[in-house]
Every structure is written in structure tokens, then in C-alpha cells.
Specification:
- The protein is an all-alpha fold and 407 residues long.
- The protein folds into 2 domains: 113 residues; 241 residues, no CATH class.
- Helix content is 64%, strand content 1%.
- Helix 1 runs antiparallel to helix 2, helix 2 packs across helix 10 and helix 3 crosses helix 10.
Length: 407
């Protein structure tokens, strides 16, 4: 295991500044050598931070490692693959006017770069996903109040999920996998893990939305809900395409197109190409999440990689089955176009059961590395046992105080 140094927040900030700088100053005329001269320091610094540093907290390391490699993937997109000034433009701008002219002031380019960097889902830009929840129409004060309320609710939900995790013997290190403690502890452990992840992500999003709208940086319409409706998730493909957040959609799509067309040289008009695209998306997503496990464990872990790899397999099977049942011929439809019509209620119920069973089987790939790293268990914080003892202690103190005050 390589020697690990304290995590450098200054280096982490430097990579972000270099990325914003590149988006600001690069144009269609920027040479590939200039682009590489900016990208290489970002890549080397990112790899150093993931492989050779630690914050001292395995949970923080996991989140940071993933975030750093996500930023690296965005750098690949915006610096090496995409001509940001020409190919990315505001959503309401006519195509004939898209792109930035060479005489646009530097400050305007900088504001544009900040907007792109802080809007990973592309709200208001040409790559904004069509599957996002509807934007808010609430007045500014009402919107801020609602997001603060949601943030508090999400924080409480995350606290409850953390207590569930710390209280679960399947996650405390007694075994090497959550699968080894029987179906009850496995099910409750997986549920708590997923609930905690969703609550933490949603809390951060709600706090940022309340702050940005509250101080006037952006409007309520720029902050649609992060997650879609769970009732849309009657297939694994719909879960990832509609219910889950779409924060990584843009860089994943861009990198996937580059890999499939430029590296693998696969033509887009072949019957199998949609499935190649699909599995490449999940392959790249798995590689990005490897960073979190490496930083958490201090060595290479493949749990997240396996998890995302099998998601591509599941969606591929769903796509093939959808084509067979819809009698669409021998040509495979893309996952995004598969099953356009809403199925009947009984079919959706079967779909919900299938999705739940699928994640019950596949999520242990994500959970197990945390067990090895000691990310869960009573040593991490509150458990139901400690809460019950605390409640009993508070009750005794209150009753004693009431009794003595009445004498």
C-alpha cells in the first residue's frame, strides 16, 4: 500500500480553477497541445489526490475520491473532446447563433464558464435533459422556505438511515459481505445504505438551491428537483434515466460517444450499436466510482465497478425483451426509445418488483467495500441501542426533576 499524505484542499481547488480557466479561454482555434498542457496537470493532480492522500475519514474519502474522478471526466469532456465555445449554447438561443464569437469579453466568458461548471445537469443550456422534473414556479421566498424545509427533512432522514446502518450487524464488520447475515439484515442494510445516500445528496442540493436563489444568483426555475418520481422506476433503465439524478449525463454521454466512435470505431447505424453505447456508459461510470473506493480502502476495489457493469447488463436485457414483446423487428431499439408507451398497471407492478429485486441483488457490490473499510458500525456514531439508553436516561432525569419540584 503506498504511503498516504494528508489531503490537500489547495490542490483540489487548483484543479477546479484550471478547469474553469480552460472553459473560459479556450476557443475553436486552441491547439490540441495547449489543451493537453492544461489537462495533464489536472489529471496528474487528481490521480495523486485519490491514490496518495486521505482526509482520515473513510466516508469522506469515498465521497471525495468519486467527486475528483467525476471532475476529471468533466475535464476530459470540456477540454479534450468538446469545443465548449462552439457546441454548447443557451437553450433559448437559435442554432444559427450558437457558440461564442471571438470578440466576446473575457468577463462574459468567465461567467459562462462558472455557469457551466456549477450547472452539471445543463439547466438552461442546450444539453439539458428532457427527462428532468418540471421547474419550480414558486415565488422566490416560498421556494427558499420550501428548500430549507426539505433540507432539514432530508438531514433527519439521513440521520435515521445512519442509525440504521450503525445498528445493523451485517454492516459492522462481523462478516465480509452484507449477503452473509440473512435476508432481514441484508434487506434493511441495503435499504438504509440507499436511503442515506439519497438523503445526503438531496440535502446538499436543497441547501445550494436555497442559498443561490436566496441571494439572487439564480432563479427558482433553475433548480428543479434533483430526483424524479420513484413511480417512474418500473424498469432499471427508467430508474437510471428518470428517477436518479442526471448530474453525470453530459460528460458520460460525451465520453461514451468518443470511445465508441473514435476509439472502438463502431458505426452508429448498426443494430448492436445502441447496446454498445449503453454498456460503455455504465463502464465509464464504474471507472469513475472506483476512485471513491480506492481513496476509502487505500487500494484498488472493484465493488462499484462491478455494480455499474451489471447495470448495463440489466438494461440490455430489458431493451431486448422490450423489442421482442413490442414486435419491433430484428433491429434493436435504443434504451431511451424502448417502451415509449406506458405499460398497464399490472405490468408496472411487476416492473417495480423486478427493480427492487435487482437492486437487492446488485447493491451489495457497493455496500461491501464500506464494510472492509470500517465505514459502518457502532464506532461510527449513534445506534438504536444508544438512542434507547439516552431516551431512558432523559426520562429518568425528567421524572426525578418533576418529582423533586413538587415536594
Amino acid at each position: 500500500m503506498p504511503k498516504r499524505h494528508p489531503f490537500s484542499w489547495n490542490l483540489h481547488a487548483l484543479t477546479q480553477c484550471l478547469l474553469v480557466l480552460s472553459i473560459t479561454v479556450f476557443s475553436s482555434k486552441t491547439s490540441i497541445w495547449t489543451r493537453w498542457s492544461i489537462f495533464l496537470p489536472i489529471a496528474v493532480t487528481s490521480c495523486y489526490l485519490v491514490c496518495y492522500t486521505t482526509t482520515g475519514d473513510v466516508t469522506v474519502d469515498q465521497g471525495l475520491g468519486t467527486a475528483i474522478l467525476i471532475q476529471l471526466m468533466i475535464a476530459v469532456d470540456y477540454i479534450l473532446i468538446t469545443d465548449v465555445q462552439r457546441d454548447i449554447y443557451p437553450k433559448d438561443q437559435p442554432p444559427r447563433k450558437k457558440g461564442a464569437d471571438a470578440d466576446i469579453p473575457l468577463m462574459k466568458r468567465f461567467r459562462r464558464a462558472i455557469s457551466l461548471y456549477t450547472t452539471p445537469r445543463g439547466i438552461g443550456w442546450s444539453f439539458e435533459p428532457r427527462t428532468l422534473p418540471k421547474p419550480s414556479t414558486k415565488p422566490r421566498f416560498v421556494f427558499v422556505s420550501s428548500r430549507i424545509t426539505r433540507a432539514l427533512a432530508s438531514a433527519l432522514t439521513g440521520t435515521f438511515a445512519s442509525v440504521m446502518i450503525n445498528s445493523n450487524p451485517a454492516l459492522s464488520g462481523i462478516t465480509l459481505s452484507v449477503r452473509d447475515m440473512g435476508w432481514f439484515y441484508r434487506t434493511t442494510g441495503i435499504f438504509a445504505f440507499a436511503l442515506n445516500a439519497i438523503a445526503q445528496i438531496n440535502t446538499i442540493h436543497c441547501v445550494l438551491a436555497a442559498f443561490c436563489v436566496g441571494v439572487g444568483i439564480s432563479g427558482p426555475e433553475e433548480w428543479p428537483d434533483l430526483f424524479g418520481s420513484p413511480f417512474d422506476a418500473y424498469s432499471v433503465q427508467r430508474f437510471w434515466g428518470r428517477t436518479w439524478h442526471q448530474v453525470l449525463r453530459r460528460p458520460l454521454k460525451s465520453c461514451t460517444i468518443f470511445v465508441v466512435t473514435k476509439i472502438l470505431h463502431r458505426p452508429r447505424d448498426k443494430q448492436y450499436t445502441p447496446l454498445v453505447f449503453l454498456n460503455t456508459v455504465f463502464l465509464i461510470s464504474g471507472l469513475v466510482h472506483v476512485g471513491g473506493e480506492y481513496m476509502m480502502l487505500g487500494r484498488l476495489g472493484l465493488g462499484a465497478f462491478r455494480f455499474f457493469l451489471v447495470q448495463g447488463l440489466a438494461v440490455s436485457v430489458e431493451t431486448i425483451v422490450s423489442n421482442v414483446f413490442s414486435l419491433s423487428g430484428s433491429r434493436l431499439a435504443s434504451p431511451r426509445k424502448a417502451a415509449l408507451s406506458t405499460p398497464k398497471l399490472w405490468m408496472r407492478i411487476v416492473g417495480y418488483v423486478w427493480v427492487l429485486l435487482w437492486f437487492w441483488w446488485s447493491l451489495p457490490f457497493m455496500v461491501d467495500p464500506g464494510i472492509l473499510a470500517g465505514a459502518y458500525g457502532p464506532h461510527r456514531g449513534l445506534t438504536f441501542e444508544r438512542l434507547s439508553k439516552l431516551a431512558v436516561n432523559v426520562y429518568h432525569r425528567l421524572t426525578t426533576y418533576v418529582w423533586t419540584s413538587t415536594l
